[in-house]
Design brief:
Elements lengths: L2 E6 L3 H15 L1 E7 L2 H10 L6 E4 L8 H7 L8 E6 L4 H9 L4 E4 L4 H13 L11
Parallel strand pairs: 1-2, 1-3, 3-4, 4-5
Length: 134
């Protein structure tokens, strides 16, 4: 199954490399991307059934990935949200967990773990249940 992924990342080089790597290694189809908190929140909330996974950076050109995460708390049960950040400190990981994030990956050394997460999520039937996460 192809995993429909939305990416919130303001660095174009990182975003494009991530899209290419995930498509090749994990059968991920990127349905869209945003560079700012407002763009990310607007798309994810406007198209609640058009994505299976959101990958969110915390430090954005405008706003913060934390705002995107908070806006996605009421999502479908099968949808996953992960953080991909250069600042995956224990405090950041704890704050992300409080916001309901499914996983946090460090950009510098956990890309393979992100790929593995995508493969596993795609294999579990990303388009399964449609009830909301509370």
């Amino acid at each position: 199954m192809t995993l429909r992924t939305y990416i919130v990342e303001d660095n174009a080089t990182i975003r494009e490399n991530l899209i290419s790597a995930l498509q090749e290694l994990a059968q991920v189809h990127t349905v869209g991307s945003a560079e700012t908190e407002d763009e990310g929140k607007a798309w994810l909330q406007a198209y609640p059934e058009q994505w299976d996974l959101a990958i969110v950076d915390l430090f954005l050109r405008q706003g913060s990935g934390l705002g995107v995460l908070a806006a996605c708390r009421d999502r479908l049960a099968n949808q996953k949200i992960v953080v991909l950040s250069n600042y995956a400190t224990p405090d950041v990981r704890m704050r992300c967990a409080q916001l309901g994030v499914d996983a946090v990956f460090d950009k510098s050394n956990e890309i393979e773990a992100l790929v593995d997460f995508c493969v596993a999520h795609g294999a579990t039937g990303a388009q399964g249940a449609r009830e909301r996460v509370a």
